[in-house]
Amino acid sequence: MHSLLQEYLANLISKSDSVFKPICFQLSCGTWVWQHAAGILEFIPARYFEHSVILTAGVHGDETAPIEVLDQVIRDIAHNELKLQYHLVVVFANPQAIRQGIRFVDTNLNRLFASAYNSQSDGPPLGLDNYEYRRAAQLKQALHVIFARTAFTHRIHLDLHCSIKPSIYPVFAVKPYTEVGRAPVIYNCPIVYPVEALIHSRRASATLSYYTTNYLAANAATVELGQAAPLYKNPPAMLKSIYSNIRVQLAQNFSQPRFCILSDKHFVVKAEIIKQKLDFRFAADLQFNNFHPIASDRIIAYQTRFQPIFAKANQRICFANQAVEVGHRAALIVEKLA
């Protein structure tokens, strides 16, 4: 096994981004490995492959269960204990936040993917040194290089997260909106991740899975895998479940027509609550668990003391977080589809 893959996560945490230089080497099993930058690894199987799978974790540095799982995936590939059926890209998205055990360093990384690679909006505001802006541009560049080089029948992207709040459905996913005129999402996906609920977005966003859907023609989703915990403090049963679902998808070849997420409960986004002012706050007695039902005409939050936000009938709240930056989403309001 190449020394780079020995305790990759531990090395990523203990060293700075600049230590991780581009490098290419071949494993004993024949798989080629490219490190494009810190935390960006590409695995190219020796056998013929039609499809590409992107697994990302650590967009928020304190959502650690999928980070640990992807480190295990890397070890198993390196030891030839996991024989890939697909081209694979593994990304630890926000190394500096992972090192510090925080959500982000300067700004929310998952709000920086609204535009195409190399667009004028890739950089931070003039004069501002911002780690996440630089990292978002680096991630876009690496993915652009990878997918400009090789054509794939399917590109599948699972952006793996954990929720800040408890959830009625602990394992759920969000399907990004596909812009009119963008490359269509192909529903003949060779892998599928099972979840308890799937939220369908109805508008453009700036998430990483939105970017891969609309600019890389990927069959993509953001996947929430239980509640966040500190690194190496995640329940073993939770890690085993995540790893088992990922491993079976990477090692088997499927061809049934479907989306990359499987669920029998579907929700649609009806509204986004945007934090418009610093004194934004949620109603003190509101239950914040993801998918918690909200009574009709119930006050959800206050933009200011005299500016309440009311719920409508049959609505539920997800991703409630009043600590977000001004201008960012503080919650999603969803409704269940019949």
Automatic annotation (TrEMBL):
UniProt keyword annotations, A-Z: Arginine metabolism, Hydrolase, Metal-binding, Zinc
Domain Succinylglutamate desuccinylase/Aspartoacylase catalytic per the UniProt entry, residue ranges: 52-235
Entry superkingdom: Bacteria
GO biological process: L-arginine catabolic process to L-glutamate; L-arginine catabolic process to succinate
MF terms (GO), sorted A to Z: hydrolase activity, acting on ester bonds; succinylglutamate desuccinylase activity; zinc ion binding
Pfam families on file: AstE_AspA_cat (PF24827), AstE_AspA_hybrid (PF04952)
Residue stretches spanning the membrane: none
Stretches assigned to the AstE/AspA barrel-sandwich hybrid domain: 266-336
NCBIfam families: PRK05324.1 (NF003706)
Source organism (scientific name): Catenovulum agarivorans DS-2
InterPro entries documented for this protein: AspA/AstE_fam, AstE_AspA_cat, Aste_AspA_hybrid_dom, SuccinylGlu_desuccinylase
Protein name: Succinylglutamate desuccinylase
Gene3D superfamilies: Zn peptidases
Cofactors demanded by this protein: Zn(2+)
